[in-house]
């Protein structure tokens, strides 16, 4: 049975972090199952779910990664998943959507959008934000990948978004994710 480990790492952004980490995973026979990696201003954050061969221990993996961790000055955490936490491939009857929010930066945008999503029992599978300057204005973009449980929830949520647009004074776009895009 495969063993699964969640790995998170963060450190000063520089070229080569992804290549260095994934080289060790490749050389130790691990497979990258799921990942999210992003630049956070001057830092780079990595979230990974890896599967390890049966013969590899978590301690051996940590030892193999240690030179990279030290050389790149990364803060790393590891969590071995319990067998009951590991399911098969996720097959879900949900409707995948991307929600885009764009407007002048002000406090509360993420909270209000996340609260509206939560109130409709919609799951957030990915969330990204970005602040930019344009002609003296600070602009904020929020991108969420969400799973809407069914068509009735979708219709209600679309009405919620119209109210939210006015309340937050932002543009909001909800777009279905085509299955061939996944």
Q: What is the string of helix and strand elements?
A: EHEEHEEHEEHE
Give the overall silhouette.
Answer: flat
Structural class by sheet pairing and helices: alpha+beta
Output the number of helix runs. Answer: 4
The CATH H-level homologous superfamily of the largest domain: ACT domain
Could you give a short account of the major beta sheet?
4 strands, antiparallel
Mean pLDDT: 92
Read across the widest sheet, the strand sequence of neighbours is 2-3-1-4
The count of domains is 2
Helix content class: 25-40%
Per CATH, what is the topology of the largest domain?
Alpha-Beta Plaits
Estimated share of beta-strand residues:
35-45%
Integer-rounded radius of gyration: 20 Å
Architecture blueprint of SSEs:
Elements: E1 3-12, H1 17-27, E2 31-40, E3 43-52, H2 58-72, E4 75-80, E5 95-104, H3 109-119, E6 123-134, E7 137-148, H4 151-168, E8 170-176
Antiparallel strand pairs: 1-3, 1-4, 2-3, 5-7, 5-8, 6-7
Helix pairs in contact: 1-2, 3-4
Please, could you describe this protein's structure?
- With 182 residues, the chain is of the alpha+beta class.
- It folds into two domains: 3-85, 2-Layer Sandwich (Alpha-Beta Plaits), CATH 3.30.70; 95-181, Alpha-Beta Plaits (2-Layer Sandwich).
- Helix content is 30%, strand content 42%.
- The strands form two sheets. It has a four-stranded antiparallel beta sheet with strand order 2-3-1-4, with helices on one face. It has a four-stranded antiparallel beta sheet with strand order 6-7-5-8, covered by helices on one side.
- Strand 6 (123-134) and strand 7 (137-148) form a beta hairpin.
- The longest helix is centred in the last third of the chain and has 18 residues, at 151-168.
- The protein is flat and about 55 Å long.
- The model has no long low-confidence stretch (mean pLDDT 92).
